[in-house]
């Protein structure tokens, strides 16, 4: 445990001795593997409650760097909010689960694998433009996901078959010692007919892989070691070739930002347009399958619309996502942060006219809080 956390516990020892409710807390500490059953048994025979608390705090200080934030989580989960608040004021980087809400276990170190597929340079036969500025996104994401304790791996300029190979390799890894898995795709995209999740992303050879097929590699059936664990997909690609010009709002709501000076899209036109109402019905029917649970897919833009990328600053969506994670991952759950991303991206304006709205399919069953340094 870090010295600053030991100091917090010692400074608040009197309040802990007076107010700590041990019976429920012992169970929570055991469940999170902070203490073993033998250690709990030893504490319980240490004497009166006050002596048990003092010995518990002393033992806690020897249980590693994650002991303090996990102890705070135990306090929240057992309803001891006053003590949690007291200790939290000195350690604001520890996420606060809401009382009564379940959250995913995110305690392993590392937390899991993060694979990024960054397609920047496309083959001439693909008729697709190179994606300038994508390397900026990739560098920011590497810094951010390493900071929240993920094993980061980058694959660049993959053909359609290579994308499938990398996803297959990821699905065959043993994730049993990890708590989460993240896939980030940066490429051109398009709208496709589908019976599941919308959209497709292009390989550098001009052939595409559907987003729905990407998620299948990691579902409960195809990747057993990720069952009941969150699988997160972040897709920076167009969902079609429509351009959103927005609508007028009151002056206090509108706070426009022009974004960068050199905005491009990741759109590839398609010869058809889906009826979105039937599209949603198809997705809902398919996504309700148990094998598809614990998956979140966050798209940079709404199905059918373009996604904007500044060639000098990176994409609107990923630049905003990285910033929101940096500023809020210590205190907010993932879905709350994606709402923040939606808000900030919606304020941008390309070429003085066009807007963008990120979009998510959330099949998670619990709140998700990332690990942060404390």
From TrEMBL:
BP term (GO), one: positive regulation of neuron apoptotic process
Residue intervals of the CARD domain: 1-90
GO terms under cellular component: cytosol
GO molecular function, one term: cysteine-type endopeptidase activity
Keyword entries, A-Z: Hydrolase, Protease, Thiol protease, Zymogen
Domain Caspase family p10: 285-372
Highest taxon, organism lineage: Eukaryota
Compositional bias annotation for Polar residues: 252-266
Domain Caspase family p20: 110-242
Active-site residues annotated for this sequence: 188, 238
Region (Disordered): 245-266
InterPro entries: CARD (IPR001315), Caspase-like_dom_sf (IPR029030), Caspase_cys_AS (IPR033139), Caspase_his_AS (IPR016129), DEATH-like_dom_sf (IPR011029), Pept_C14 (IPR002398), Pept_C14_caspase (IPR011600), Pept_C14_p10 (IPR002138)
CDD domains in alphabetical order: CASc
PANTHER family with a match to the protein in the record: CASPASE, CASPASE-9
Family: Belongs to the peptidase C14A family.
Record's protein name: Transcript variant X1
Organism taxonomic ancestry: Eukaryota, Metazoa, Chordata, Craniata, Vertebrata
């Amino acid at each position: 445990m870090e010295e600053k956390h030991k100091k917090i516990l010692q400074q608040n020892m009197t309040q802990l001795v007076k107010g700590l409710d041990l019976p429920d807390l012992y169970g929570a500490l055991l469940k999170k593997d902070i203490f073993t059953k033998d250690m709990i048994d030893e504490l319980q025979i240490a004497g009166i409650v006050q002596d048990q608390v003092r010995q518990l705090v002393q033992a806690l200080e020897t249980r590693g760097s994650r002991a303090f934030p996990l102890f705070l989580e135990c306090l929240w989960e057992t309803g001891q909010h006053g003590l949690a608040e007291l200790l939290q004021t000195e350690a604001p980087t520890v996420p606060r689960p809401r009382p009564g809400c379940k959250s995913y276990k995110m305690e392993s170190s590392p937390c899991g694998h993060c694979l990024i597929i960054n397609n920047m340079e496309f083959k001439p036969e693909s008729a697709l433009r190179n994606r300038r500025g994508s390397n900026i996104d990739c560098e920011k994401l590497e810094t951010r996901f390493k900071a929240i304790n993920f094993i980061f791996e980058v694959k660049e300029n993959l053909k359609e078959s290579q994308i499938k190979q990398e996803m297959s390799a990821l699905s065959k890894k043993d994730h049993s010692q990890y708590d989460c898995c993240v896939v980030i795709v940066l490429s051109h995209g398009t709208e496709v007919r589908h019976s599941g999740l919308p959209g497709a992303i292009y390989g550098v050879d001009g052939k595409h892989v559907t987003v729905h097929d990407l998620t299948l590699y990691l579902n409960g059936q195809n990747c057993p070691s990720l069952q009941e664990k969150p699988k997160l997909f972040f897709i920076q690609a167009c969902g079609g070739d429509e351009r959103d010009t927005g609508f007028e709002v009151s002056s206090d709501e509108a706070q426009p930002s022009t974004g960068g000076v050199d905005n491009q899209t990741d759109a590839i036109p398609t010869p058809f347009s889906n009826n979105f109402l039937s599209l949603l019905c198809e997705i809902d029917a398919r996504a309700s399958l148990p094998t598809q649970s614990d998956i979140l897919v966050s798209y940079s833009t709404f199905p059918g619309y373009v996604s904007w990328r500044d060639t000098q600053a990176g994409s609107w969506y990923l630049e905003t996502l990285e910033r929101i994670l940096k500023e809020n991952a210590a205190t907010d759950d993932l879905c709350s942060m994606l709402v923040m991303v939606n808000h900030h991206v919606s304020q941008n304006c390309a070429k003085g006219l066009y807007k963008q709205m990120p979009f998510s399919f959330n099949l998670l069953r619990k709140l998700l809080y990332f690990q942060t340094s404390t």
